[in-house]
Design a protein that fits this description.
With 458 residues, the protein is α/β, with parallel strands linked by helices. Helices cover 37% and strands 21% of the residues. The strands form three sheets. Strands 1, 2, 3, 4, 5, 15, 16, 17 and 18 form a nine-stranded mixed sheet that branches. It holds the Pfam family Amidohydro_1.
């Protein structure tokens, strides 16, 4: 059970209200788009959604917020982030390899607790301002960053990196696995879940974050699978994120990373696997049969000159979701890149890749990967009121013939005007309501400055 006595800002006050005069993109099974519609929020949940002409009398008495010219969507579910890695923003994108494997820049083991909190709060507020009502974050000092991020007002799943490789050596190309490291990192993850899973009125949780098949030994991966089943926790990992990972696992274990995860019992529909770039045809089929959830990182991967075989993975049966990784947290841009990369693979435009497909990946697809499909991911009666209002009264969003098309092709995260999480407004007119944004920015800049000074030997 969570230690509720020490949860900051635990109680989420909600205000019943009626949002009116807007366009609602429901992302329900029929992908309905409702014009001149309304959404009633009661006790943090959606009590009614439909055309204003059909407003029930019992909802008509709620306090109203008229939102003419806005488009309302479910909150984005950003399934793969590393908030603290904003410390290498504008640099790591041009290195050609993941920060953890790159010498000469700040690394996770360099980050102090105070620096971790400052940078994590920046990541949480950035994601919320861009419309992500849930982030699934992994990195270091998770025992401190999880509650700090939740204090911004959104849903936060988090976990420290579980691994038994010595990260201080990997930048030099040395993979040394130590049981003590694995026991410590897995133990810390389970302790984190004991304290925070289901805390903050249900806004926080833990997935066991096995860092990657090359940084986790075969034995540790098996222990993570056992812990997942024993404690009822889902697992996320990086899978086939680099050729170096594939080569290292083949050298060590004689299997591809996907084969290894399958053998140790992790390749299943409770696995969220990020990147999935370097999979052969057999591994794509294996992942599809297992029904894994793929955390597609289209912008980040394309910046590095790579792309996941998302068309093949979809056809094989894998479930696709979306994340921003350590890039900026604009999920709208991620939607656009996911659509473009899918169409490049198809060599044209057809019904297989349309805006509705990537919007579903960024909302309901993410909710399913997190085990929360019954609670979030669509604008439907009974679900939590995790809602995002985009201001479509912008030159680049007018005229609006197809709201989903405009959202995916021409909108930006900066068009987010209001955000609600469990019925509580956490962003109003583009500003966070629960925290001092300027203070968060100042703290994060100071933390990054200190990290870079140490990395450069200053």
């Amino acid at each position: 059970m969570p230690d509720t006595a020490t949860e900051p800002n635990r109680t989420m006050d909600t205000t019943d209200r009626l949002l009116t005069d807007l366009t609602v993109v429901t992302v329900d099974a029929q992908m309905r788009v409702l014009e001149n519609a309304g959404v009633a929020i009661r006790a943090g949940r959606i009590a009614w959604v439909g055309p204003m002409a059909e407003l029930p009398p019992e909802q008509a008495q709620l306090p109203r917020l008229a939102l003419r010219g806005r488009v309302l969507t479910p909150g984005f579910v950003n399934v793969h982030t590393h908030a603290i890695l904003s410390m290498v923003r504008g640099v790591a994108e041009d290195l050609g390899f993941a920060p953890a494997y790159t010498p000469g820049i700040p690394h996770g083991h360099d980050v102090t607790p105070d620096e971790a909190v400052a940078l994590a709060r920046l990541g949480a507020v950035e994601a919320l301002l861009f419309g992500s009502t849930l982030v699934n974050d992994t990195y270091v000092h998770a025992d401190l960053t999880l509650p700090a991020m939740a204090g911004i007002g959104g849903r936060v799943y988090s976990c420290g990196r579980i691994h038994d490789a010595d990260f201080s050596l990997i930048g030099d190309g040395r993979w040394e696995h130590h049981d003590a490291i694995g026991e410590r990192t897995l133990g810390e993850a389970l302790a984190l879940a004991e304290r925070w899973h289901g805390a903050f009125d249900g806004r926080t949780g833990v997935q066991l974050s096995a860092h990657a098949p090359d940084t986790c030994s075969d034995a540790l991966l098996a222990r993570i699978g056992e812990a997942s089943r024993r404690h009822g926790l889902r697992v996320n990992t990086h899978l086939a994120q680099s050729r170096k990972e594939v080569a290292q696992v083949m050298l060590r274990s004689g299997r591809t990373p996907a084969q290894l995860l399958d053998e140790v019992g992790l390749l299943n529909d409770h696995l969220l696997a990020a990147h999935c770039l370097f999979l052969d045809e057999a591994d794509i089929a294996r992942c599809g049969r297992a029904g894994i959830h793929v955390a597609h990182i289209p912008k980040g991967n394309a910046t590095g000159g790579t792309a996941a075989p998302t068309s093949a993975l979809r056809r094989a049966g894998a479930a696709l979701t979306l994340g921003t990784d350590n890039m900026h947290a604009d999920m709208v841009e991620v939607l656009r890149w996911a659509l473009a990369i899918g169409r490049i693979q198809e060599d044209g435009v057809d019904d297989f890749w349309q805006p509705v497909d990537v919007l579903r990946m960024g909302t309901m697809g993410g909710a399913q990967a997190m085990g929360l499909a019954g609670q979030i991911g669509s604008v439907e009666v009974g679900k939590q009121a995790d809602l995002v209002a985009f201001d479509f009264r912008q030159p680049h969003l007018v005229p609006c013939v197809n709201p989903v098309g405009n959202l995916v092709h021409t909108a930006q995260g900066r068009d987010v005007e209001h955000v609600w999480v469990a019925g509580r407004q956490v962003v109003a007119s583009g500003r966070p309501t629960q925290v001092d944004l300027d203070q968060i920015l100042d703290d994060a800049q100071r933390a990054a400055n200190a990290l870079w000074q140490r990395a450069r030997g200053g």
